[in-house]
Amino acid sequence: MESVLQHLGLVAFYCALFLMNVLIFVGLPGGWIALAAISLYAFATRFTTVGWQMILVMAGIAIVGEIAESLLGLVYVARKGATKWGLLGAFAGGVAGAILGTAIVPLAGSIVFGLAGAFGGAVFCEYLFYRSLDKALRTGFFAFIGKLGAMFVKFALGLLIVGLCDLMRAARDAT
Fold first, then answer.
1. Which residues contact 130 (CB under 8 A, 6 or more apart)?
2. In the Cβ-directed half-sphere of 130, how many Cα atoms lie within 13 Å?
3. What is d(CA 32, CA 39) in angstroms, rounded to the nearest whole number?
4. What angle do CA 41, 166, 18 make, to 5 degrees?
5. Could you state, in chain order, the average pLDDT of each consecutive group of 10 residues for the chain (175 residues)?
6. Residue 2 confidence (pLDDT)
7. For residue 109, which of 166, 27, 32 has the smallest C-alpha distance?
8. What per-residue confidence (pLDDT) applies to 25?
9. Residue from 126, 68, 70 nearest 98 by CA
10. What does DSSP assign to residue 48?
C-alpha cells in the first residue's frame, strides 16, 4: 500500500509541476515556481534524489528560458525584415499589453493583451515611420508569432527542468 501511495504522490507531483509550467502562458513565472517546488522536494529528501548541483543546472535552464523569451521574439521579427522601430514597437507593445491585460483580466489578460500589444505596437511604429500598411501588418503578424513562439520555447525549457528532476529520481531509484 505504501508503494502505491508513493507512486500516486509522484504522479500528483509531476502533474503539479506540469501545471506550474503552463502558468508561463498566462504571464507567470511557471518555470521558476516549478523549480522552487523541485528544490523543496530535493530539500525534503535531503538532496538524495536531486542534488544541489542539478538544482543549479535547472536554475541555469530557467535563466536561459527567461533570456530566450525576452529575445527570441524580437530576433524572429528582425529576421523577417522589421526595422528598429518595428522591433521597439513590438517590445514596448508586448510589455504594455501584458501590464494592461493583467489589470483588466488577471492571469489570462496578460497573455492575450501581451500578444495583441506586440502586434499593435509593431504595426503602429512601422506605419508611423514608414507609412506602409502592408509592411506594418506583416511586421505585426511576425511580432505576434515571435512572441508566441518564444513562450513555447520557455515552456519547453520548463518541461526540460521537470524531465531532469524525473531523470534524477529514476536514477536514484535504480540504485
1. 83, 85, 136
2. 19
3. 10
4. 80
5. 71 78 72 82 81 85 82 80 83 82 74 83 85 82 84 84 77 72
6. 64
7. 27
8. 72
9. 70
10. S
pLDDT on residue 134: 79
pTM score, whole prediction: 0.72
Q: How many CB atoms lie within 10 A of CB 85?
A: 19
**Residue 18: alpha-carbon gap to chain centroid:** 12
77 contact partners, CB below 8 Å, separation of at least 6: 86, 87, 90, 122, 139, 142, 143, 146
The helix (run of H) or strand (run of E) holding residue 159 is: helix 133-174
* Rg of the chain on CA atoms, in Å: 20
Distance, C-alpha 32 to centroid of its chain: 10
Q: Which three cell numbers stand for residue 122?
A: 509593431
d(CA 59, CA 41): 15
| Beta-carbon contacts of residue 75 (< 8 Å; ≥ 6 apart) | 146
Spell out the alpha helix ranges (H) of 23-132.
Answer: 30-44, 52-79, 84-104, 108-130
